[in-house]
Specification:
The complex is a heterodimer of chains A (112) and B (114). With 112 residues, chain A is an all-beta fold. Chain A contains no helices and twelve strands. Chain A is 0% helix and 51% strand. In chain A, the strands form three sheets. In chain A, strands 2, 5, 6, 10, 11 and 12 form a six-stranded mixed sheet that branches. In chain A, strands 3-9-8-7 form a four-stranded antiparallel sheet, with no helix packed on it. A two-stranded antiparallel sheet of chain A has the order 1-4. The relative contact order of chain A is 0.34. The model of chain A has no long low-confidence stretch (mean pLDDT 93). Chain B has 114 residues and is mainly β. In chain B, 0% of the residues lie in helices and 50% in strands. Chain B contains no helices and eleven strands. The chains are: A mainly beta (112), B mainly beta (114). At the A-B interface, strand 5, strand 6, strand 10 and strand 11 of A face strand 4, strand 5, strand 9 and strand 10 of B.
Chain lengths: 112, 114
């Protein structure tokens, strides 16, 4: 079945360090891919998305490229800030109206 | 514009009781989905409704039910609560016709079963 696998956390970085959170997927169709962020005590916020192969989603300095050949959608940011500390979820959606399938989440902690 | 609103924000129930959670989607969104997020895990799909019809159901027992009203708001009902039902319940709405349009989530209802 369709699934998403993320790198395990927690990930601890110093401020201004480079961030990569790996995400790979398995899907029978042609999924749209998403990254969501969840700050402590809150719901999920859409961070970025990509709908087809080679699309690059970007927002707030975060980027992810839809790689069909490696079935990956890794999240990157060049210089993290303390305010980026949160849990990040990779997700896919296969069918129109279809459910979102989430990875297990990766907790990011950025230290000053 | 108002986002997805959920009520109540927090709830404490006793084992065996029944609970109803409510969700109002973003104006213009006709699809509402419910997710359960257990502490430390990713959200798990429970139900999706579109135009008042159930379009999908996750791997949850029949104790879980939902419905969507003519104004596209939705209720999630859980009967015979178990301790394991303690979780953050998230509602998400979407503009159904665009596959690439991500779901917008509410802040959730945190249910504690004691």
């Amino acid at each position: 079945g369709d699934s998403v696998t993320q790198m395990e956390g927690p990930v601890t970085l110093s401020e201004e360090a480079f961030l990569t959170i790996n995400c790979t997927y398995t899907a029978t169709g042609y999924p749209s891919l998403f990254w969501y962020v969840q700050y402590p005590g809150e719901g999920l916020q859409l961070l970025l998305k990509a709908t087809k192969a080679d699309d690059k989603g970007s927002n707030k300095g975060f980027e992810a490229t839809y790689r069909k050949e490696t079935t990956s959608f890794h999240l990157e940011k060049g210089s993290v800030q303390v305010s980026d500390s949160a849990v990040y979820f990779c997700a896919l959606r296969v069918n129109q109206g279809g459910k979102l399938i989430f990875g297990q989440g990766t907790e990011l902690s950025v230290k000053p | 514009d108002a986002g997805v609103t959920q009520s109540p924000t927090h709830l404490i129930k006793t084992r065996g009781q029944h609970v109803t959670l409510r969700c109002s989607p973003i104006s213009g969104h006709k699809s509402v989905s419910w997710y359960q997020q257990v502490l430390g895990q990713g959200p798990q799909f429970i139900f999706q409704y579109y135009e008042k019809e159930e379009r999908g159901r996750g791997n949850f027992p029949d104790r879980f039910s939902a419905r969507q009203f003519p104004n596209y708001s939705s209720e999630l009902n859980v009967n015979a609560l178990l301790l394991g039902d303690s979780a953050l319940y998230l509602c998400a709405s979407s503009y159904e016709r665009d596959l690439g349009y991500g779901y917008t989530f509410g802040s959730g209802t945190r249910l504690t079963v004691v």
